[in-house]
Design goal:
The complex is a heterodimer of chains A (495) and B (235). Chain A has 495 residues and is an all-alpha fold. Chain A folds into three domains: 61 residues, no CATH class; 219 residues, no CATH class; 110 residues, no CATH class. Chain A contains 23 helices and two strands. In chain A, helix 4 packs parallel to helix 7. The longest helix of chain A has 38 residues. Chain B is built from five helices and six strands. In chain B, 45% of the residues are buried. The chains are: A mainly alpha (495), B alpha+beta (235).
C-alpha cells in the first residue's frame, strides 16, 4: 500500500522535484514552473529533456483529469461497507424571506400611520428599534432595499441574471410607499437609517453650502453603483455598507472602523450616511416631492413662529420667505444662463465619463486579470498573482480572456457615458435649483430631504395646542410677534 | 392632519399619475422577473461562471424565475487557496470541506490527511495536515497488504481553509469546498466571491444549492452503476 503514495512517472520528475523545495503542489503547476526554469537555461540539452518530461507528465495528468478517471479507483469493498453519500444541509427556509417581506409591508404602513396620522414620534422611534433588531441584527441586514438597487441594475444590464421576485418586491415597496407618503421608509423601517436615527443625540447644524455640496454625493454614488452593478463588476453598495458589519458583529477591520466612525459622526451630524452617501435615499428623494401625503411640521396652519427653525437635525426644514430677493433681474439672467448651459454641462460630463470608461472597466475582475496577464507575458520578471496562477491552471487560452475583456470594455462605454451625463445632470439641476428663489408662506419640510422622523412636531406650538399641552393660548399673538421686528432692536428677519 | 378630503381636479390628476406610476413600477418589476434567465450566458463572473473555459463543463442555462439565489463554489474552478476561511463575514466561515466518497480512493497514505512533506505515518495530532484536526480517519478493511480508510469531515471543527482539498488534489481530488447553506447568511455580494482569485463563486438557484466537480459526477454515476449491478446480482 505504501507504493500507492507516489504516482509512477518519468524519473526526470523526481529529479527535478529534488531541487524544487515546493514540489508538492499539483502537477500542472509543476509543469508551468519547469517550463520557466527551462526557458532560463535555454539551449542546454538537460533543460530540453526536463521540458519534454514535464510535458509528458502534464499530458498524463491532464488526460487523467479530462477523462475524469480517479488516480486511485474506489476499492471493491468486501466487508459490506456501504459508500456513504456526501452530506448536503438544506438552505435556510424561504419562509424567513416572506416574513421579511411581510414585516416590510407592515412596518411601512405603520410608519406612514405614525408619521402622517398620529404624528407620534415615540411610535416611530419604537418602530426604528424593532427594525434595527429584526432587519439588522436578526436578519443581518441582507437583502435590503438599498442593496437591491444593484440587483435590479444587474437584471437590466445582464439578462442572464434571474432576479428573484422577492428582491424586486423589496426594491419597489419603499418606492411605492414614498410616492404616496414620503420617505417613511427612511424614518423607521430601513435598518441603516434607523440605527442612525437612534444615535443622533446632539446633532450640529451643517452649513448650508456644505450640505448642498455633500448632498450631491448620493446621486453620484447611485450612478456609479448602477453602472458597476449593471456591468457585473461589483456590488459596491454592499461592499461599502458601513453598518452591515456592525449588524453581523464581524467583518474586516476597515469596514468596522468605517461603520463605527459613521455612528460616532452620527452623534453630532444627523444621519451622515443617509444624507451624504445613501444611493437609495437619492432615489427616494426624487420620488418624495411627488408624494400625495407628506409630513408637515404643523398639524394646522403655520403661524411662522420660527420655533421649529432649529428642530431638524438633518437640515430639512425650509424657512418661509416674506421679502423678495434684492435683484430680480440679475436672478432671472442667472437662471436663464444656467438653464441654457445645462445641456453643455451634461455634455461635458458625459465626455468626461467616456474618458473614464477604461479606469472603470479595470475594476472588473476579468479585465484586471487580462491586464495582469498581458503585463506578465510582456515582462515575466514581475511574477504572478493568485488570480493569474488560477487562470493558468484552468488552461484557457489567453486570447479568449483578452476577447472577453475587450467585450466588457465595450460594454463600459455606454455605461460610463451614462454615468458622466447623470453626474452632469445632477450638478446642473442643483445649480438651477439654487438659482431659483423660493417663495414660501410657511415653514415646511424639504420634501426630498425630509426623512419623516417626526422630530419637528414637538417644536410647533400649534401641535402643542392640538395635544392639549398648552391651553388658552392666542396663536395669533405668536403670528404677530413673528411678523414684527423683535423689541430688542434686532434686525428684522433676514432671508 | 395632512390628509385633506377636498377633491380638486389637480389632486385627482395627481392621484391618477401616482397610481399609474406605482403600477408602472410594478409592471417593470414583473417584466424584469419574467425576462430573467432568458438572455445569453456569461456576462459577469458572479452571476454565471464568467467566460467559457474548455476545462469547465458548459453551463446549464439558469431556470426561469427561481425563487431565490444562493452562493456556491464551482469545484472545477476552485484553487483551494485559504480565501474562504479568511474573507467570509461569519467568524467561522460558512465554507466547509466536503468529502465525495464516491471519488475517494480510501487510501492508506492520504495526502489530504497527512502533510506531504516531513510526514510521519502516525495519526497523532501533530501529524495532521488539517490545522483543526477536523478529518476523521476510520479503518474500513484490508485487502492483503492494502489497507483502506474512510475519511470524513467533522464540520463542527472544519474552518474551510482548504488545506486538505489542495492535498487531496494530488491524488483523486475527492475533497472539495462548498458553501454550507445551514450557515451561509447569503449576503447580496458574497465577501469571499469578491476576493476569490479563481472567480469560482457564483449564484446558483436555491433549489439546487450544491455543485459537483466533473470528475465527482462521473464517480457518482459509476458508483450508482456498481450499486445497481450489486443489487441485480443479489436478487
Amino acid at each position: 500500500m505504501i507504493g500507492r503514495r507516489r504516482r509512477t512517472g518519468p524519473p526526470a520528475e523526481n529529479c527535478q522535484a529534488a531541487d524544487e523545495p515546493n514540489a508538492a503542489p499539483e502537477a500542472q503547476r509543476r509543469a508551468v514552473r519547469l517550463y520557466s526554469v527551462a526557458t532560463l537555461r535555454r539551449g542546454s540539452l538537460c533543460s530540453m529533456l526536463v521540458v519534454l518530461a514535464a510535458v509528458v507528465v502534464w499530458l498524463f495528468v491532464a488526460a487523467t483529469l479530462i477523462a475524469g478517471e480517479p488516480v486511485y479507483p474506489l476499492p471493491e469493498f468486501t466487508s459490506g461497507y456501504q459508500v456513504p453519500d456526501a452530506l448536503h444541509p438544506p438552505p435556510r427556509p424561504m419562509w424567513r424571506h416572506y416574513a421579511d417581506l411581510a414585516y416590510l409591508v407592515v412596518a411601512l404602513a405603520l410608519a406612514a400611520y405614525f408619521a402622517l396620522v398620529l404624528r407620534w414620534r415615540a411610535g416611530l422611534l419604537g418602530l426604528a428599534v424593532v427594525s434595527v433588531i429584526w432587519l439588522g441584527f436578526w436578519r443581518k441586514g441582507c437583502v435590503c432595499a438599498v442593496g437591491a438597487i444593484q440587483n435590479v441594475a444587474l437584471a437590466i444590464g445582464d439578462p442572464s441574471y434571474a432576479i428573484p421576485p422577492l428582491v424586486i418586491a423589496i426594491f419597489l415597496l419603499p418606492l411605492v410607499f414614498t410616492l404616496f407618503f414620503g420617505r417613511v421608509f427612511c424614518a423607521a423601517v430601513c435598518p441603516l437609517g434607523a440605527v442612525q436615527e437612534l444615535v443622533a443625540v446632539r446633532p450640529l447644524k451643517v452649513p448650508r453650502w456644505l450640505d448642498h455640496a455633500l448632498g450631491l454625493l448620493p446621486h453620484v454614488y447611485l450612478g456609479a453603483a448602477v453602472v458597476l452593478a449593471a456591468t457585473g463588476t461589483a456590488f459596491v453598495i454592499c461592499r461599502y455598507d458601513p453598518f452591515v458589519n456592525l449588524f453581523r458583529l464581524g467583518g474586516s477591520a476597515g469596514m468596522l472602523l468605517f461603520g463605527g466612525g459613521m455612528l460616532l459622526l452620527g452623534l453630532m451630524v444627523g444621519r451622515p450616511y443617509c444624507r451624504y452617501l445613501c444611493p437609495y435615499g437619492a432615489l427616494l428623494s426624487l420620488l418624495s416631492p411627488l408624494a400625495r401625503w407628506h409630513v408637515r411640521i404643523t398639524p394646522d396652519e403655520c403661524i411662522n413662529c420660527r420655533m421649529c427653525e432649529e428642530a431638524c437635525p438633518y437640515g430639512a426644514i425650509l424657512e418661509s420667505t416674506t421679502t423678495p430677493p434684492p435683484d430680480r433681474n440679475w436672478g432671472r439672467l442667472r437662471l436663464g444662463l444656467l438653464l441654457l448651459s445645462l445641456p453643455v454641462i451634461v455634455g461635458v460630463f458625459a465626455f468626461a465619463g467616456y474618458q473614464l470608461h477604461w479606469p472603470l472597466a479595470r475594476l472588473h475582475p476579468s479585465v484586471s486579470l487580462a491586464v495582469r496577464m498581458q503585463a506578465e507575458l510582456a515582462d515575466p520578471s514581475i511574477g504572478t498573482t493568485e488570480a493569474s496562477d488560477s487562470f493558468r491552471r484552468t488552461g484557457r487560452p489567453v486570447e479568449e480572456l483578452y476577447a472577453e475583456a475587450e467585450q466588457i470594455r465595450r460594454r463600459f462605454i455606454p455605461g460610463s457615458v451614462f454615468f458622466g451625463a447623470w453626474v452632469g445632470l445632477v450638478f446642473g439641476v442643483k445649480l438651477v435649483s439654487l438659482a431659483v428663489y423660493p417663495f414660501r408662506k410657511q415653514y415646511e419640510p424639504h420634501k426630498g430631504n425630509c426623512v419623516s422622523c417626526g422630530r419637528c412636531y414637538w417644536y410647533c406650538p400649534v401641535e402643542q395646542a392640538r395635544l392639549g399641552l398648552i391651553r388658552d393660548v392666542d396663536l395669533d399673538a405668536y403670528r404677530r410677534a413673528a411678523q414684527s421686528p423683535s423689541p430688542g432692536g434686532d434686525k428684522p428677519r433676514q432671508l | 392632519m395632512a390628509i385633506d378630503n377636498i377633491p380638486t381636479r389637480r389632486a385627482f390628476l395627481g392621484d391618477v399619475f401616482r397610481v399609474l406610476g406605482a403600477g408602472g413600477m410594478c409592471c417593470a418589476g414583473l417584466w424584469l422577473t419574467l425576462r430573467a434567465g432568458s438572455g445569453p450566458q456569461g456576462q459577469s463572473p458572479q452571476t454565471s461562471a464568467g467566460g467559457k473555459s474548455p476545462a469547465a463543463e458548459p453551463l446549464q442555462p439558469l431556470p426561469r424565475r427561481p425563487g431565490s439565489y444562493v452562493w456556491q463554489i464551482d469545484p472545477d474552478r476552485c484553487v483551494a487557496c485559504d480565501g474562504c476561511q479568511k474573507y467570509c463575514v461569519l467568524d467561522v466561515s460558512a465554507v466547509k470541506a466536503v468529502q465525495c466518497f464516491a471519488l475517494c480512493g480510501y487510501c492508506d497514505v492520504c495526502t489530504g490527511y497527512f502533510p506531504t512533506q516531513g510526514y510521519v505515518l502516525e495519526t497523532g495530532a501533530e501529524n495532521h495536515l488539517c490545522p483543526t484536526g477536523a478529518i476523521n480517519r476510520r479503518f474500513v478493511e484490508r485487502h492483503g497488504d492494502e489497507r483502506f480508510f474512510e475519511y470524513t469531515i467533522d464540520e463542527q471543527k472544519c474552518i474551510g481553509c482548504g488545506k486538505c482539498v489542495a492535498g487531496c488534489r494530488l491524488m483523486n481530488g475527492s475533497l472539495y469546498l462548498q458553501v454550507r447553506h445551514d450557515r451561509c447568511v447569503n449576503c447580496n455580494e458574497c465577501a469571499i466571491a469578491v476576493a476569490c482569485p479563481a472567480q469560482a463563486f457564483r449564484r446558483v438557484p436555491a433549489t439546487e444549492p450544491y455543485l459537483l466537480g466533473k470528475n465527482m459526477k462521473t464517480a457518482i454515476a459509476a458508483l450508482e452503476r456498481r450499486r445497481q449491478a450489486a443489487g441485480g446480482a443479489s436478487t
